[in-house]
Specification:
Immunoglobulin-like, mainly beta, rod-shaped, single chain
């Protein structure tokens, strides 16, 4: 028994794994002895201490103590003791354990909404982030290049948030944050915050050269929204049809020039939009005056167009009816009364005392109605003279009476019945 106690006193010592633990990590303490309980013929109880204070886990038969997480505050002097059933206590030599912290680094500032663009009256969140660092970290937020402190908070995490519930235009500024876990602060870069306001309702102004405007005049349409963050896009409309657009990067209004015609009379409006919602102006009416001479020409032209539009079809219809009657039912006396005279035919004479038989010449005069064709026949008398006398044709004795023949026409073409009262 005495030998076992001697072995226990000589062999009891405390070890830590790792010997230089990192903050936020685990650590294992072992109270070691070369003597066994069989050699001591007794059951030992092991207790662990730091700076003369027993650890919260108490004592037990297990010589190994697992510490889940250590922080820098856990740095100090550690030792253990072994106690027999006879209440004989043996302590190990002290060891110094220094918990190692990791300094914060790579600190950045992020915003929500992103890109530092926030609408007036909305919430802005500034998020300070550290890529690495152990232990309690103190975060601070600053406004402006001079560093007006807005908020400071300490917590055991790698990020922290600062909120502005309702931003105003005065919150448009540069911001930065710092993070420190005892090894010195780490500073983020500057981030610009822009508070944007929706556009107000724009006002449309028509700048004309005089009290009255005429075709050919130049009119300037000017649209301006007196409230709203730039840039602002303006669009101009005539009777809800887009005329054009113009951007105002500095927040002033925009103009659009228009050369007037008669078609430009009517209602005009404009629209302003900066990405936070479009606003429309009230409607402005523009009346274009027609010059007196143009008005007379327009009136005359309108009257003529109206008369032609109304009387033209009527006249054409009446003319077509008259022409149809004229062709289909007109009497013979309406046709030409002087048919072509027949060309006198050459005559042959023989030595004979008797006069030659008169020769007849036939000629179709006209195609008449129904299935009938009328022909006009001229009858010419010729007589023989003495051989010594020249031949003479008695054209003055020509029979000018008209002889009509009616022939059947086998053609399907409709014709008109025509008679001639005078053959010559």
């Amino acid at each position: 028994m005495l030998l076992g106690l001697v072995l226990l006193l000589c062999a009891l010592h405390l070890t830590a794994r790792p010997s230089w633990p990192l903050e936020g990590r685990s650590m294992t303490l072992t109270c070691e002895t070369e003597a066994t309980s069989q050699q001591l013929d007794d059951q030992l109880q092991f207790c662990f201490f730091r700076d003369d204070q027993a650890l919260d886990l108490g004592c037990g038969s297990d010589p190994v103590l697992q510490v889940p997480t250590v922080w820098r505050k856990d740095s100090g002097s550690y030792w253990c003791e072994a106690k027999t059933s006879a209440q004989k206590v043996t302590r190990s030599p002290r060891i110094q354990i220094q918990v190692q912290g990791v300094p914060v680094w790579n600190v950045s500032l992020e915003t929500q909404p992103p890109e530092g663009q926030v609408q007036k009256g909305k919430k802005l969140v500034l998020i300070c982030l550290a890529t690495q660092g152990t232990g309690h970290i103190t975060f601070s937020w600053y406004k402006g290049a001079l560093g007006l402190n807005l908020e400071t908070k300490t917590q055991r995490s790698l990020s922290a948030n600062f909120e502005i519930p309702r931003v105003t235009e005065s919150d448009s500024e540069k911001y930065y944050c710092t993070a420190d876990n005892g090894y010195g602060p780490s500073v983020s870069e500057l981030v610009s915050i822009t508070v944007r306001s929706p556009v107000s309702r724009p006002i449309l102004t028509l700048k004309v050269p005089g009290a009255q405007v005429f075709p050919g005049d130049m009119v300037e349409l000017h649209c301006e929204a007196h409230g709203g963050s730039p840039p602002i896009l303006y669009q101009f409309y005539h009777e809800n049809v887009t005329l054009g657009s113009s951007s105002a990067p500095s927040g002033e209004g925009a103009s659009f020039n228009l050369s007037l015609t008669m078609e430009h009379s009517g209602n005009y409006s404009c629209e302003a939009d900066n990405g936070l919602g479009a606003q429309h102006s009230e409607v402005v009416t523009l009346n274009i005056t027609v010059p007196v001479e143009d008005r007379e020409e327009l009136l005359t032209s309108g009257i003529l167009e109206g008369l032609l539009g109304v009387l033209g079809p009527t006249i054409m219809a009446l003319f077509c009816c008259w022409l149809k009657k004229k062709i289909g039912r007109r009497p013979a006396r309406d046709l030409p009364r002087s048919p072509p005279r027949p060309v006198p035919q050459a005559s042959n004479y023989v030595n004979s005392a008797a006069p030659l038989q008169g020769q007849s010449v036939y000629e179709n005069v006209n195609v008449v109605s129904g299935d009938e064709i009328y022909s006009l026949v001229y009858h010419t008398q010729q007589e023989r003279q003495a051989a010594a006398n020249p031949l003479r044709t008695h054209t003055e004795d020509q029979d000018a009476s008209a002889i009509y023949f009616r022939l059947k026409n086998t053609s399907d073409t409709s014709v008109t019945d025509v008679d001639y009262e005078d053959a010559m």
